[in-house]
Fold:
Amino acid sequence: RAKERGGNTYEFYAEEIGAHAEKRLLLENELRRALNRDEFVLHYQPQVDSATGRPCGFEALIRWQHPERGLVPPGDFIPILEETGMIVEVGDWVLQTALRQLADWHRRGWDGLTMAVNLSSRQFERSGLPETLERALNEHGLDPGVLELEITEGTLMQDVASTTFTLQQLSRSGFGIALDDFGTGYSSLSYLSKFPFTTLKIDRAFVRDIPGDPDHTAITRAIVAMGQGLRLRLVAEGVETEEQRAFLNGLGCSLMQGYLYSRPLSAAAATAWLADSV
Ligand code: C2E
Ligand code: MG
Ligand code: MG
Structure:
């Protein structure tokens, strides 16, 4: 179609597509080197029990410390890691790094803390995920219960049969399993009882608009009631204001993660934050 509009337009499009493909290839190559060059870092965001004000754990969130472009957020490179399959190797690095950090905090006396780690579907498809996880835990002398694996509805839907099998295996081994970004995907509510979740994370999209927006407030209320009925641990994501905190607490959802308590922090900053708060 571009060609119909004349030679110049066609050339313009071809150039643009070429530039895009080139940029993408460059990025892919840079990402391949990033692991060896130690350019990935984990930041840790506290999860707080707002009823007591005490931290109960952290979520590990990856960033790319790019030599020229600075700190690159995961949304800019996780999709490429997933497409190329590099996410499996990077995911192993994430697990190792997060568990080493957690073991360090436990040794320093903060031994009640848990660590939540995000898993992508590619990591699930690979056989031996439970064994890999158990080996990593043993290496750091940690119990499976301190690790919470976060998966999204999208991951669940990729391959329901094999995901069910793996999740059941992980659940029997004692790992925590959280359904991340709950309410934004396409999974059926019956999945909540079909899969062995221990935690439900209420998506920031709902939390953002409470208590002002009546629809999102009603949805949040329903999610909390359902989670309580199913005896799931509930964590509200993206809590930014005192008003949101008070409202969620009133519903009986006391575990929270959000800028109100802290942004994701470097390992050193998270340790300082812990020292300040407990
Ligand atoms: P997520 O797992 O839902 O993580 C929560 C995101 O919300 C994080 O964004 C966090 O910085 C942000 N957030 C937390 N509290 C607030 C708040 O109060 N307000 C606002 N506006 N945002 C808040 P981040 O770090 O950019 O991560 C984005 C997504 O990238 C994550 O969403 C997760 O799906 C993915 N991701 C991060 N690390 C990893 C990883 O190691 N492996 C995989 N597979 N995915 C990862
Ligand atoms: Mg998450
Ligand atoms: Mg989330």
